[in-house]
Amino acid sequence: MKKTFTAVFFWVLLLAAAYYVFWGRHLYRITAYCNCPICINEPRYRDGKFASGKKIYWGGVASDPSLRFGSKVELVPLWPSDWNGVIRFLKGRTSFTVEDRGGKIKGKAIDIFIPDSRGGHKQARKWGVRWMRIKVNGVFAP
Ligand SMILES: [Zn+2]
Prior knowledge:
- The chain has helices at residues 2-22, 80-89, 120-127; strands at 28-33, 60-63, 72-76, 95-100, 109-113, 130-136, 139-140.
- By secondary structure, it is of the alpha+beta class.
- It has a six-stranded mixed β-barrel.
- 23% of the residues are buried.
- Zinc ion binds at residues 33-34, 36, 38-39, 121, 124.
């Protein structure tokens, strides 16, 4: 009994260390927003356009200025709860394009635009804050 406990304990420790080294420390903070006064508090930014100048569309996301407009961002869900969120709130979509910026979006963070036709604010609220790795233009972001 004691031997089993020790073995399990070390396996869990090893897996946790592996997760930290290879995956967990590269996570991005993934949030969602819509075109409403709560999500975009500056009226002049609620003009129906992204910061890139393009008309707002489903598939655009906001990022830190370190990612250029037009960069392809792919979410890489790992845990079942992450997949569940992607399937329920993004209809399974994982590929997005950087089109927007935000004052509060700094560092390793992505803010997904949810148009009203896809549930808007309600869906963005339900998405909440999730932590996932991303690929930028096909390469895992550090
Ligand atoms: Zn909103």
